[in-house]
Amino acid sequence: MNSNRLSPAMQAALNTQMNKENFQAQVYLSYGCWADSEGYDGISNFLFRHSKEERDHMMKFLEYILKRGGKVSIGAIPEPHDDPKSVNDCFEKVFKQEVDNTTSIYALVKQSFDEQDWATWNFMQWFVKEQTEEENLAIELLDMIRVAGGKEATHSALFSLDKRMGERGDSARLAQDATTDNP
Ligand code: FEO
Predict the structure, then answer these.
(1) What range does the domain containing 160 cover?
(2) What is the 143 CA–ligand 1 centroid distance (Å)?
């Protein structure tokens, strides 16, 4: 008896998104390394924490697929994009990545609606809310770099920004406190 409650198309789409979240974790990880090597410890700390958050998103999809009796397909993680060229470029890339992810999440919501797969539709609502928060965060980063001078930001403005982000990191919830239900 088939106990898989996901359609083949939905299972494939959820697996694709699960692997995409894992790729995003890799991208944040690589940007975190880049920031650290450039001397931006605060920004690096923030990016490393965010990488863990993306990994938790991946686990959330993985657990859901299993819970619905589906088959998880762990794919290869593509190589992250090139290193950012500057802090400005880094934050622009982060924003673009989050907007792109929102598009993928919305496509899954639409697919679940079209299939009348209400369990998946309900599951996806957490990600709709999360993407709003992630986009807000990315917009906040763009605002911070704009105030610091954008592409023309001085060393001193970038120093202050990095310090500020390091302080934010301390107040952020630690990755080890996150669960797959509440990443
Ligand atoms: Fe898992 Fe930043 O979206």
Answers:
(1) 8-74+82-172
(2) 20
